[in-house]
Automatic annotation (TrEMBL):
InterPro entries: Hydgase_Ni_incorp_HypA/HybF_CS, HypA/HybF. Involved in the maturation of [NiFe] hydrogenases. Required for nickel insertion into the metal center of the hydrogenase. Ni(2+) binds at residue 2. This is Hydrogenase maturation factor HypA. The lineage of its organism: Bacteria, Bacillati, Actinomycetota, Actinomycetes, Streptosporangiales. Zn(2+) binds at residues 70, 73, 86, 89. Signal peptide: none annotated. Keywords: Metal-binding, Nickel, Zinc. Belongs to the HypA/HybF family.
């Protein structure tokens, strides 16, 4: 489950960005070539973020496709499947490009961690 390593790095990056603020939301763009499974990513993020200022953040995962090119028939397309075949002729000798990005697109911060402890409940 490579999502754990990815999420550990993401949590560390978010913690550095946050300083003493809480992170309430983040948007991450990941290419399909990484073969990230959404549910596994959510679980890995929750595990990596537990006990940190990032633990309650809502993370939006956006998966971007790869481009497929078929040398046999010339069809071009996009796919989320790293084992894709040509949608035109079914050939499995396609060329895949892109889909390898991993980008933290946005972060939303909340109150400073020190301010949260002073709020009455």
């Amino acid at each position: 489950m490579h999502e754990i390593g990815m999420c550990e790095g993401l949590v560390e990056l978010l913690r550095r960005q946050a300083g003493d603020r809480r992170v309430t939301a983040a948007r991450v763009r990941v290419g399909a070539r990484h073969a990230v499974v959404g549910e596994a990513f959510d679980q890995a993020f929750a595990l990596a973020a537990a006990g940190t200022a990032v633990q309650d953040a809502v993370v939006e995962l956006v998966v971007t496709p790869m481009t497929i090119g078929c040398p046999a028939c010339g069809v071009g397309s996009e796919t989320l499947d790293p084992l894709a075949v040509c949608p035109g002729c079914g050939d499995d000798g396609v060329q895949l490009s892109g889909g390898d990005e991993l980008v933290l697109e946005s972060v939303t911060f909340g109150e400073r961690a020190s301010d949260v402890s002073r709020h009455p409940r």
